[in-house]
Amino acid sequence: MERAAVIVEECRRSLAARGGMLDEIIGGVAQCDEWRHYPAGEVYDPASHAQYFYHVHPAAHQSVGEHGHFHTFLRAEGMPRGVMPLVLPEIGVAATRSAPQAAPLKRGGSDEVSHLIAIALDSRGQPVRLFTTNRWVTGETWYPAADVIRMLDRFTIAEAPPAPLLNRWLTALVQLFLPQISALLRERDRTVTEWRQRRRGDVFEDPRLEIASSIEIDIDAQLSFLDRVRATATAQPARRLPGLAEGWGEGQIG
């Protein structure tokens, strides 16, 4: 998180000098087209198999104070060993019957893809919210939260065209907010489980459940938190280790 904090700060300064975050995302066009994926063609790293895009919902469906949001993914070739899709009686296969709202383009050799986290920006291009979605939103393959959390460290996008600075910033941002993202993924699973128990239907296809978990964020607050943690750790006096014979045998369990 500390390394990520340094990168996020560097990228923020560079992005501000280049015209701002939103200009970097949409490539200098006057405004975002609704539902269109930015940067054009999405961004996919063939080495890590991480993928992302940014899009804007129609105003009537956009959360108050938000401009648009990133959807971040990891495709099957980049996932850790041992992860397995969740299979429930109502979903023998992980393909959605309805058209996903925000499906990523097919990249790589496998169809399986996990949605990691969505990151909402305000009109200034500042991250203001993290959230998870139901499966029908992205058409993803559903992996349990514990497996998706293992995937987070593998979300790395090379600093390559069309948006090398944006790639670096987004990679670091996910690492900066790892604790919050992990908590949201666990809450996502609890929400889906409770919904399924109450309604007994195909929860993953239920349009009434779109956002499974959400939290407001502030980069400056997160950086301040890290500063306080660092200061506290620095202020702790070093513990003196006992000598080899000092206290030997005291409190030992025979």
Brief synopsis:
By secondary structure, the protein is an alpha+beta fold.
Structural class: alpha+beta
Relative helix content = 25-40%
Which ranges are low-confidence, i.e. pLDDT below 50, for 5 or more consecutive residues?
92-96, 241-254
The main pleated sheet reads as: 6 strands, antiparallel
Beginning-to-end CA distance, first to last residue: 42 Å
> Kindly state the mean pLDDT as a whole number?
87
Q: Determine the strand fraction and express it as a percent band.
A: 15-25%
Written overview of the protein:
Strands 1-2-3-4-5-6 form a 6-stranded antiparallel β-sheet. Helix 1 (2-17) packs antiparallel against helix 5 (164-176). The protein has helices spanning 2-17, 21-26, 135-138, 145-151, 164-176, 178-199, 219-235, and strands at residues 38-44, 50-55, 68-75, 113-121, 127-133, 211-216. The chain contains 7 helices and 6 strands. It is of the alpha+beta class and 254 residues long. Strand 1 (38-44) and strand 2 form a beta hairpin.
Defining traits:
single chain; 254 residues; alpha+beta; 17% strand; disordered C terminus
Question: What topology emerges from the helices and strands here?
Answer:
Elements: H1 2-17, H2 21-26, E1 38-44, E2 50-55, E3 68-75, E4 113-121, E5 127-133, H3 135-138, H4 145-151, H5 164-176, H6 178-199, E6 211-216, H7 219-235
Helix pairs in contact: 1-5, 4-6
